């Protein structure tokens, strides 16, 4: 029989799985796979959450986050929302580069995209959107944050997370460690089309008052816009913005 703690953990996993598939919505099967739970269990939990307004169901039967979550989030905004501070930095990056710019927050072993601002360049990457989650070490924001954790924290994370199983052999521990070293050397992370071929990204960590990497600014776009001749310029812009935002958030 499930204990209350078991149920709360499963509900959290289900809600995070639904969140990761916004705004298109999630099927019961996709939520079950993402949460690592049996489909009947997930269907039972989703049905209960629907009754509480914590999830909703679209006309096509897909699951979406519910209105009660919005109200709960609004109540917590004064303590946790940093997007108002981050928005000008994200907008300036988009204006200065022409690329899509993002602000992501660390949440445990993941980063969650909170803001997106598209630049003027007409061809855009659609890998990232508000609400999408990636494990640390995946995508440029997750790599930027992971690289500035301690070596012990990196070891523990790579021991817990089988990134290669979900994201391919380029996310095996040795390849992730090589990109961590490169990120520490440059100061910013580079994702050379590892999630979607031809879609590149760059990210820089944003630090809290204790010097911990809790957020990241990132840019994404087509490969041709992230050539070797332009990456140092983009990296400098990211690092300047990340430093400014770190100072503002403190």
Give the mean pLDDT.
91
CATH C-level category of the largest domain? Alpha Beta
Q: Hey, roughly how much beta strand do the residues contain?
A: 15-25%
Q: Looking at the structure, what is the overall shape?
A: globular
Question: Explain this structure to me?
Answer:
With 250 residues, this protein is of the alpha+beta class. It has 2 domains: 4-72, Arc Repressor Mutant, subunit A; 82-249, Beta-Lactamase (2-Layer Sandwich). The chain is 50% helix and 19% strand. The chain has 10 helices and 8 strands. It has helices at residues 4-20, 28-35, 39-51, 67-80, 83-97, 139-147, 151-160, 163-167, 173-186, 231-249, and strands at residues 55-57, 63-65, 100-107, 110-117, 133-135, 189-191, 199-207, 213-222. The protein has a 6-stranded antiparallel sheet, with helices on both faces. A two-stranded antiparallel ribbon has the order 1-2. Strand 6 (189-191) and strand 7 (199-207) form a beta hairpin. Helix 5 (83-97) packs antiparallel against helix 10 (231-249) and helix 6 packs across helix 9 (173-186). The longest helix has 19 residues, at 231-249. The protein is globular and about 55 Å long. The mean pLDDT is 91. Keywords: DNA-binding, Transcription, Transcription regulation. It comes from Nocardioides mangrovi. Residues 5-67 form the HTH iclR-type domain.
List the helices and strands and how they pair.
Elements: H1 4-20, H2 28-35, H3 39-51, E1 55-57, E2 63-65, H4 67-80, H5 83-97, E3 100-107, E4 110-117, E5 133-135, H6 139-147, H7 151-160, H8 163-167, H9 173-186, E6 189-191, E7 199-207, E8 213-222, H10 231-249
Antiparallel strand pairs: 1-2, 3-4, 3-8, 4-5, 6-7, 7-8
Helix pairs in contact: 1-2, 2-3, 5-10, 6-9
